[in-house]
Design brief:
62% helix; Acyl-CoA Binding Protein; Acyl-CoA-binding_protein; FERM/acyl-CoA-bd_prot_sf; 181 residues
Length: 181
C-alpha cells in the first residue's frame, strides 16, 4: 500500500510524488486505523456541533415564545358585572410623602437658601439633623480650643433622648420656616 492511498486526494496532490512510497504492512494497518479514528472523531465533532446548534436553536425558539407570550398577555378582563356597574370610583387622595422623603427633601432644600442663617439656627439645624440620622451623641466633648466643634457638640447634646422621628419632623419644620422667610 502506498502513502497516497491513505490520505485524501486533495492532500496528496499538494505533496511531492517522492513521498508516495510503499508503507510496510504493520505501519500500513496502524495508519489506516489512525485515519479511521480521525474520521470518526471528525464526524463526532461535526455531529456534536449540529446537536449543539439544534439545542441552541430550540432553546432560543422557546425563549422567543415565552417572550411573545409575556408581551402578548392582556390585562385581566373585567367581569360583566364590573362593566355594567354605574358606580363612579371615589377619587383617591394623592399618596402623602413619607417622613423619610420629607426629611430627605428638607435636607436638600436647605442648600437652596440664599442667605446664611445665624449661628443659633445653624446649631439647631445641625443638632436636629444629627439626632435624626444618628441618634444620641456619644464621645467626649471637644476641648476649649475647638470652639466650633464644641458648639456643635453642645447643640447636639441638648437633643439627647429625642426620638429620631420627632427630630426629623422638627428639622423639616425648621427648614420650611427658613425657606418661607
Amino acid at each position: 500500500m502506498k502513502l497516497f492511498d491513505l490520505i485524501p486526494q486533495k492532500l496528496s496532490d499538494l505533496l511531492p510524488p517522492t513521498l508516495n512510497q510503499d508503507i510496510p504492512a504493520p505501519i500500513d494497518q496502524v495508519a489506516e486505523q489512525v485515519l479511521e479514528v480521525g474520521k470518526l472523531a471528525g464526524y463526532a465533532g461535526i455531529g456534536l456541533a449540529i446537536k449543539t446548534r439544534d439545542y441552541a436553536k430550540n432553546t432560543l425558539n422557546e425563549l422567543i415564545e415565552i417572550g411573545e407570550q409575556a408581551l402578548g398577555e392582556t390585562p385581566t378582563q373585567t367581569t360583566a358585572q364590573e362593566e355594567t356597574s354605574s358606580e363612579v370610583p371615589a377619587p383617591q387622595e394623592p399618596a402623602k410623602p413619607s417622613l423619610e422623603e420629607l426629611f430627605s427633601d428638607a435636607s436638600e432644600n436647605i442648600k437652596t437658601l440664599t442667605s446664611k442663617p445665624d449661628n443659633a439656627t445653624l446649631g439647631e439645624l445641625y443638632a436636629l439633623y444629627k439626632q435624626a440620622t444618628i441618634g444620641d451623641i456619644s464621645g467626649k466633648r471637644p476641648g476649649i480650643t475647638k470652639v466650633a466643634d464644641r458648639y456643635k457638640f453642645d447643640a447636639w447634646n441638648r437633643k439627647k433622648g429625642m426620638d429620631r422621628d420627632i427630630a426629623k419632623q422638627a428639622y423639616i419644620e425648621k427648614v420650611e420656616s427658613l425657606l418661607a422667610s
